[in-house]
Amino acid sequence: MKKNFLTFLITAALFFLIGFLSCYFVFESKKGEMQIAGGGNDNFQAGWNAAKEDLIKKGVMQPGEGEVVKEVMGKIELIKGDSVTLKINALEPLSDPDLDIRNISINNDTKIYQIIKKDNKEYQEDLKQFQEELANSKDTSGQQPGPSEYKTAEINKTDLKVGQVLIVNSGDNIKKLKSFTAEKIEVQYQPLANL
Q1: Is pLDDT of 194 > 60?
Q2: How far apart are the first and last CA of the chain?
Q3: Which residues, other chains included, contact 171 with Cβ-Cβ below 8 Å and sequence gap of 6+?
Q4: What pLDDT is recorded for position 1?
Q5: Which residue has the higher pLDDT, 129 or 95?
Q6: How buried is residue 86: exposed, middle or buried, by Cβ count under 10 Å (0-12/13-18/19+)?
Q7: What is the DSSP letter of 61?
Q8: How many other β-carbons are positioned within 10 Å of the β-carbon of residue 62?
Q9: Main-chain phi, psi angles of 166, to 5 degrees
Q10: CA pair distance 126, 24, nearest whole angstrom
Q11: Which end of the chain is more exposed for a tag (fewer CB within 10 A), N or C?
Q12: Distance between CA atoms of residues 52 and 62, nearest Å
């Protein structure tokens, strides 16, 4: 009986040792795979990349989406001198939440436009002109865009107000910039019911 128990104990210890060493060597061999581009063992970045790949596979994101960003959209939270603080819509599902607030500088070269809804008479005139051009056109594809219900008017930075929704363009890649200078700003149309 003691001999059987001793044999069992030695066999169990041997299997435990083999299992432990196997796991250790498998882990050591996989350690290199956990390193990310740029070196280091950044588990957060590895998880972030894995989540992005999963979203691409599911069709939520496109490969390479957002590599170069030159335009953001958001709501004005603060206006101070030549600077506007904008709460933007997230650029992608896993973007850095610290970049949801952007500081936009406005200089003398920044063009600012207000998008305005055309009155019904003006829109009907544009529609009539479009229909005439369409009737005289040799293009039968039916792909010509109709007239817009909106027009733009240039405004000054003093016309900007907290709560307005803007599309801000920059000549630079602003994907990871907290602060940048705007080249063009479009103040979006907001019906009176939404103000």
Answers
A1: no
A2: 88
A3: 70, 183
A4: 66
A5: 129
A6: buried
A7: S
A8: 10
A9: -120, 150
A10: 74
A11: N
A12: 10
137's CB contacts (< 8 A; 6+ apart) are 144
pLDDT tens by residue, 146-164: 888 999 999 999 999 999 9
User: 85, 78 in Cβ contact below 8 A?
Assistant: yes
Q: How many CB atoms lie within 10 A of CB 37?
A: 8
Residues in the chain: 195
Q: Is the pLDDT of residue 174 over 70?
A: yes
CB 116 within 8 A of CB 152: yes
Token pair in block for residue 69? 């960003």
The C-alpha atoms of residue 110 and residue 184 are separated, in whole angstroms, by: 5
Q: Can you give the pTM of this predicted structure?
A: 0.62
Q: What's phi and psi for 83, nearest 5 deg?
A: -125, 140
Distance CA 195, CA 191 (A): 7
Q: What stretch of H or E contains 115?
A: strand 111-117
C-alpha dihedral, 79 to 83 to 87 to 91, nearest 10°:
160
| CA pair distance 144, 4, nearest whole angstrom | 89
